[in-house]
Amino acid sequence: MPNSSAVSGFYRMPLKDRLRFLAEFSDLAAEELNLLSNTGALPFHVADRMIENVVGAFPIPLGIAVNFLINEKDYLIPMAIEEPSVIAAASFAARMVREGGGFHTTSTPPIMIGQIQTVNVADPHRARLAIYSRKTDILEKANEQDPILVSLGGGARDLTVKTVHAPSGSMLVTELHVDCRDAMGANAVNTMAEAVAPLIEEITGGRVYLRILSNLATERIVRAHVTVPKDAVGGEDVVEGIVSAYHFAAADPYRAATHNKGILNGSIAVVMATCNDHRAVEAGAHAYAARTGRYIPLSTWEVNQDGDLAGSLEMPMAVGIIGGAISTHPVAKIVLKILRAKSANELAEIIGAVGLAQNLAALRALAHEGIQKGHMRLHARNVAIAAGATDDLIDRVVEQMVREGRVRADRAKEILEVLRKTTQ
Predict the structure, then answer these.
(1) pLDDT at 372 > cutoff 60
(2) 290 located within any domain
(3) Strands 299-303 and 207-213, sheet pairing
(4) Predicted confidence band at 382 (pLDDT cuts at 50, 70, 90)?
(5) Residues 159 and 297 in one domain
(6) pLDDT tier, 416 (very low <50, low <70, confident <90, very high otherwise)
(7) How far apart are the C-alpha atoms of 285 and 359, rounded to whole Å?
(8) Which residues have CB under 8 Å from 391's CB, separation 6+?
(9) Are 130 and 204 in contact, with CB atoms under 8 Å apart?
(10) Of 99, 114, 378, 405, which is most buried by a Cβ count within 10 Å?
């Protein structure tokens, strides 16, 4: 049995050999190996090209949120998530929003920023002006790297230069602004940044270290807003409670973090379903929330002149409908077909609307009935299944745990044991 994780050429092994090594190292049973080797709708040969050292796939439930009306167009929203209640909550919120005319969204052009860090510059401020004087040459060099993107109307559009004061001294940062069209754009931007680095060194006399895109996509913003009739949301008291909850988040970063997590519950589930980079979206969202020096909510809620609830959301949204895993994963292709999104901007706006819907649902639950009531019933199903309940016993275990207010694994096992004895 191997006891070292130092393995040479693991990536070159056939799947059966990787699994055999894994089984010996971790003492996996045959049924566990069978589960790992079942990659479902993602064939092994596809998964093996997507990432390194593949031994299986990790399925996450894929559900459909309903009731979404965005810019007067109906959508069914595929969401990939393991947390119960999120899809139901988003669908419920979308139904409320629909009564006020649905979601209204806009987005900026799909501009990503690539940063080139230059150090050891004798005169950073003069070098900054020198870079601006060679702007045309730099952009031309960048665009030579991706003629297809340029032919589609994208490419490097502009650049900015700033001086950053770091503990090691001043450094010059050149930022390429690249229109990525329908791609998320990381590969294109990184390639352009790499290509212009020698030219930046020649102009400044300094040394370039990092040349990479930023995930704080402040030039690629999605905005969504809604008006929810007070009667649809539950009345004036509920409206007041939702606005008060927002004010709490606006005043306290501890609450703001959970407020924004609720938004990302919805948004990231769609990002995941489309095989976009959820880590990039999350990093950008949190950095954007802290851009003023204080961590604040990504959404706002207020009462309009008619006493109805008005909500809005603004956040970076770097997603695409082509490239990388989006074009490789067979289920992601189906998800995009279900969404009927014809551009990266349309997908971004859908994701923004779902984030705002999920935020509304969470705040309404907090203000109206407490977050646990609906969530715990769905959570109880997972607890019952984990305890070994099957078929109709699942619902009976859930009902008793919820009625008692004791949704715990030990209680589920106790209830299940009694039910099995009584049904024998």
Answers:
(1) no
(2) yes
(3) unpaired
(4) confident
(5) no
(6) confident
(7) 14
(8) none
(9) yes
(10) 114
